[in-house]
Amino acid sequence: MVDSPVTAVERTDVVVVGARCAGSAAAATFAKAGRAVVVLDAATLPSDTLSTHLLWPAGLAELQHLDALAAVEALGAPRLTTAYAQAAGHGVDSGYPSVDGIDYAMCVRRTGLDAVLARTAVNAGADVRPRSRVTSVVWDGNRCAGVRYLDAEGRTREIRAALVVGADGRRSTIAREVGADQPFLTVPSGRDCYFAYWRDRADAPRHIAAQWRVGADLGTAFPCDDGLVLSLVQPPAVSEAGRGPGAAQRRYTEALARIPDLTYRLRGCEQVGRIRSATGISSYFRRSAGPGWALPGDAGHFKDPVTAQGIRDALHYGRTLAESVGDVLDDPRALDAAVAEWERRRVVECREIFYWTNRLARGETLRPLEIELYRSAADDPALAQITAGIFSRTHRPADLYTPSRALGLAVRASVHQWAHLPAVLADVAREIRDSTLEWRTTRTTLRGDAATATTSPSPHVTLTTAGPGEHHV
Fold this sequence. Notes:
CATH class of the largest domain: Alpha Beta
Radius of gyration: 23 Å
Organism: Nocardia alba
Number of strands: 21
Distance between the termini: 26 Å
Keywords: Oxidoreductase
Pfam families: FAD_binding_3
Region (Disordered): 445-473
Number of helices: 15
InterPro entries: FAD-bd, FAD/NAD-bd_sf, PheA/TfdB_FAD_monoxygenase
Helix content: 25-40%
C-alpha cells in the first residue's frame, strides 16, 4: 500500500495497535507507570468481535490486576462457581482452584468487556483513538520506529514511538509489516466452532459452566450477562466445500441434536440472533519480539477456543509486556533484551497448555484413556480439581498425567474396557508417541529461544524524515 502524504507526525513512548484485551491491558499498565501511550483501533468502540469469551479464575485475576474486575462484574454476568463436564455417561462436578482469591469463572460478552477495558486504559492516562486504521510501520534502519495510520477523518498520520505493540489479532497488520505473520509452529484444528446466544429460562442453573462430549462432538453452555446463555458446539472440521451458505445454522443444529443433554439444557430457551462461526482454525506461535516491536495477544500466539485460554493470555501477556519493558523504553539495547525475554517466557509458559489444547481440538471420538479419565474424575474430587486447574493455569497437564497416574489410567481402562483391549493398547501407544513428539518440540521449536531465531524482520516501509508538524503526545 502506498501511503498518502502525512498530515501530522507525533511522538509518544508507546503506540499500541488494537484496543481490546491485549492492547488495553498493555496500555493501562504502561500509562499507570507514567508512560505516554497512544492506542489505535480500526473499529468503532465499543463494538462486538468474534469471541466465545469465557473467563476462568485466572482471567478474572488479570482483570483484578488492572483494577477492572468490579466494572466487569457490574455488567451482570453471573459468577460460575461450578464446572461440570460429562462424557461417556460420566459426569464430573468441581469447583475452581482459587487464583488471587477468585474461585469462580464468568462469561462476559465482548462488547461490554472491551468497553470496560478501553475505559480502564483511558482512566489510566492512555490516549485511545477508535476508527484509526494502521496502514504501515515506520522503520529507522532495522528498527521499528512507529506507525502510519488513517485517522477517523481519513487523514494519514504518523506516530513515532520507542515501542510498537501489535495487539491487532490473528490477522495482525503489525505482524505482517515486521515480517512475522508466518508462524514458526502451527497446528490445524480438527474442529470447527459454531455458537449462539439463547435467552435463558428463569429456573436455569446459572452458576454452572457445562461441557458435554458425545462421540466426536463437543458442546457447552455458559450463562452470561443480560440473562443469556452462550452455547457453543465444536463438531469435527469439514472441508471448505462444507462451509457454504447456510452451513453454520445447519451444522450447529445437527451438532445440538447429537448432544442430547445440551439440547435438554437449552429446553425452554429462545435463540437470540444468528449462529456465529469460526472455521479453518489453526493454533500457532509467531515470532513476537524484535527491535522496537512486540506482539501480545492473538497477533503473536493463538490457541484453539476449545480450552478458552485466549482472553486470559491476551490480558496477562499484554500486562506483563508493559511491566517488563516500562523502565527501559529509553534504552534501545535494554528494550530489545527485555522484549526478547518476555517472548521467551511466554513460549515456555504456554507450550504445555498449547499441547493440551491441540489434543482436545482433534475432533475425534473419545479415546479409551479419555473415557477412563472421566470415569476416575467422577469419583475423585482431587482429580477433578486438577483438571479444572489446568484450564485456569493453577495446574499443569503434567500434574494430571504423572507416571503413576498414567499407568493407573491404562490399567483401569484395560479392566473396564476389556472387550476393546486392542483399542486401549493402541491409545497407550499413541499417548507415548504424542508425549515423545511434544518433548522433541519442547527441546527444539519451543525451547524458548527458538522463536527469536526462526524468522527475521523484513521491513518494507522506510523511515521518513520528521516534518514541522511533529509534536509530543
